[in-house]
Amino acid sequence: MGALALTLLLGAQIVHLRMALRRHERLEKAVIAKWRPLLTAALAEAPPDTLPPLPPRERLPFLRLWLHLHLSVRGEASTALNEVAYRLGCDGIARELLRNGNRSERLLGVLVTGHLRDSSAWGDLMQLASAPDSATSLQALWALVQADADKAMREMLPTLLRREDWALPQVANILQDAQDICARYLSEALMQLEAGHLVRALHLAEALRVTLPAAQLATLLRSGNTELAIAALRLVQDPVLLDDVRQRLVHPEWRVRVHASKALGRIGDRSDIARLQDMLGDAQWWVRYRAAQALLNLPFVQAGDVEALAAATTDRFAADMLRHALSERDAG
To answer: Which domain does 279 fall in, by range?
Structure first.
């Protein structure tokens, strides 16, 4: 009897869930049928003079439809969608979701707030950006940047450098439209950070293609910290740093020698051909490989010059590496 009762209870629950799902699907279809024509008219620069009310039961489906359309448009079309949302009070609905919604509803509220560029939700977004949930906190960072990039970088930079769970490619994608602002704040904070946070700041600068002052990079290269030296070498673009880069070619850590060779391929002059030739005899394969690539990257070195170097060298490993780099470039 107990097993039969449990079976009947399970069956009733399944029926209830299926009926709830069908009600939800019917509501979604009704909301789309009601609101898509009005939102499409707004996108066509013909927003209706009056809008129907947005009942509580239609709010979440409407916001999902609105977000779907927002992701497919840019510029003035986005402005038209925002105007409709503000007229319907969606900014207030989104703030309510940020404060009292479940996880999926909070995420929906964050996305709506970000697209609306609603700075009045700043406190709620800051709280979510500090939450342990990586996905929600990253989206909250995005919404803050959308609302006010300068203020977001000023207030969130310490958190951004501390949150190891925030993947740098995702952070860089969020900040890509605020590169100049990021460059300013990173440059100001650079010499005040701990070594661990400093390395992450340099990696972020690299991901954003931010150019940092040569004087700061020179200080980092001379710091004696291997990880800092590697991160700084990856950012070197200015020939004024040539002497500092050349000194790293004899660094005891092979990874530093690798990135010093790559940096010479970006900023080196003709005298560096001989230095890179010497690096072809390094004990580490990766150093020899990057040195060969760096020779090919020098703008004044032609393929024929590299072939001549390979033919003239008495080091079989160096010759093989030069020919390997040449064949790779030709295949690419």
So the answer is: 213-332
